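Reply to dn_fold:

You asked what the input looked like. This is it:
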Amino acid sequence: MIEDKVKKILFVVDSLGGGGKERQLLEIIKVLSKDAGLRLGVITFNKNKHYSTSIKALVHFYKELKKRPTRLEPFFTIWKQIRQFDPDIIHTWDSLSSMYCWLPICFYNIRFVDGSIRDAGIEKGFQKWVKKFFLKRAEVAIANSRAGLKYYDVNGTVLHNAIDLNRFHEKRGDEIGVNIIMVANFSDYKDHETFIKSSITLLQYGIVDGVFLIGDGKNKNKFEDFVASTCKTFIGKFHFLGSITHVEDYLEKCQYGILCSTCEYAEGISNSVLEYMAAGLIPIATNVGGMSELIEDQKNGFLIDCGESHRIAEIITNLERDPAQKQIIIAKARKTVEEEFSLEATINTLLNLYNKLC
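and this is what came back:
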């Protein structure tokens, strides 16, 4: 609990869509909303998104501001909302939100936490400079990986993504078959092509029974067309599910969770991979950014190089022939999440930061 009088924390985030950043915000708010010593507020710039309803129900103050017709509008409209809620701390979750909040933060002398480092290489050029500008002016800069702090060259605190283990159920038996899944929005930062190519190989050799793809985005139709044109024999085995709320229901049906990323845009620590491990799946991920901080190769999962579709197929084929080794890795993956990425530890770290600022 924040000490002394009730403290007001305002979270500002560009969107409440179905990404890992937004899921982390929801998990944190779920816990903090139970603390009588806190009043929580949220400002976002997109309406009626994936987690909007869930988060709105948990906080004391909630505003959705327009970002159109121009991106300049929130610079003016956000002042009124900040003054109305009168927060002790503003915690931003992306560089756009930091930019919109910066002037009112200075004018009203509000403590500033910049939690925009969720990657280890997405921002380039001028965008990277802008992000660093606000990070260096925050009283606390937060990253979800050491790789992120290094890439943006700032001193800060690593606040790992955390998982509520109660979300995940005991896995079903072998009657569900061998299924694989990739949970990621269809953006330029993710490499769905490599995942689909490995899936086709595994289907051709009869190693897996079903392929699940969860997420939405501008490239979704392109990859649906790619499957339709290159894999007509197995098209019914691919399930493009779009953006869904209860991802754990589909993780329950799968044995392998895969995250293919591009080398150009590196991950921080992926929320999807943490969910794989918590749900009892074997994680396989591209070795970029902060992924090696989470996965110890061939111990609690597997790291691959960019574009190695054949390596994904090889790993899964070998593990299906060695059930004992498969169970060892599943157990180590779950233990990693329990010991190093618990929600309780993350919340305690965050509350300590807030207490020091107040």
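Residues 7-162+342-357 form a domain with the Rossmann fold fold (CATH 3.40.50.2000).
Hope that clears it up.
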